[in-house]
Amino acid sequence: MTRLARSPWVLLLPSVILMLALFGWPVVQAVLAAFTRDGELTLDHWLRLIEDPYFLRALRNTMLLIVIVVPIQLLLSLGMALLVQARPRFAGVHFYLWCVPLAISELAAGLVWLSIFDNRGYLNSLLVSLGLSEHGLPWLGYDNPATMLLAVVVAEVWRATALMFVIVVAGVQMIPRDYDEAAQVFGASFWQRLRHVTLPLLAPSLQVALILRTILALQAFAVAQALTGRDFPLLVGETYEWYVNLQNPAVASAVALVVLAISLGTAVLYLRTVRGSEDAR
């Protein structure tokens, strides 16, 4: 057996080939499409993208969605995981109920919440029946961006918190119970055990959950599309709009590169933040 055959790089070769075929080559094609025209370098596609009034709105809405949704989902998933760890009655039932949204597609989830937030939806029907509103509220009206954001946030939190929950539960179950029991013996309160025992040991799982959920939040499209159409634009929705409806793959590639850059930036930020806190300890 040759040294090359014994090398661990041989085992990585199939994965490297797969990544180059499914990720590397499309990225190269996107860069070429976004920065060239007729074989020459150009920034015309980027200028056209920046001049589009929907682009900055989509960028703002996407960043707002990340800043609001991801922390809420992190706190909810952590609380749900700690509750499961406490092993209350019917803990298994809780786990499976909280994981139900994982089995529902984004578009189906958007349609479910559309039936709630629509002008004649369940929420307005409830408000009218309780006498809190005469005709209901235009939750998804184009002139009410705050309520549109609220509707998309609620739908995304309901749909995708289960993903972070599963990751955090797996991390919590990997923590030896001896550490928590030893802290209890020395008189540590619940919050002290959470801060000094659970969270430090849970940091790798939280890092994975944050990176994965942020990347998926950047890709949010179907829920917002079902609820608001293009009244609440998002970056991935603009990629679809430019590629399918406007028939301009070059500008669509530029939007996709913006999404890629934000994804890589947030991933590096999370990695450095978690590793920095671990080094500080």
TrEMBL record:
CDD domains per record: TM_PBP2
UniProt keyword annotations, A-Z: Cell membrane, Membrane, Sugar transport, Transmembrane, Transmembrane helix, Transport
Membrane topology: Multi-pass membrane protein
TM regions (residue ranges): 63-83, 95-116, 148-172, 201-224, 250-271
Domain of life per record: Bacteria
GO BP of this protein: transmembrane transport
Subcellular location: Cell membrane
One GO CC term, this protein: plasma membrane
Domain ABC transmembrane type-1 positions: 59-270
Main location as per UniProt: membrane
Family statement drawn from the similarity comment of this UniProt entry: Belongs to the binding-protein-dependent transport system permease family.
Name of the molecule in the record: Permease component of ABC-type sugar transporter
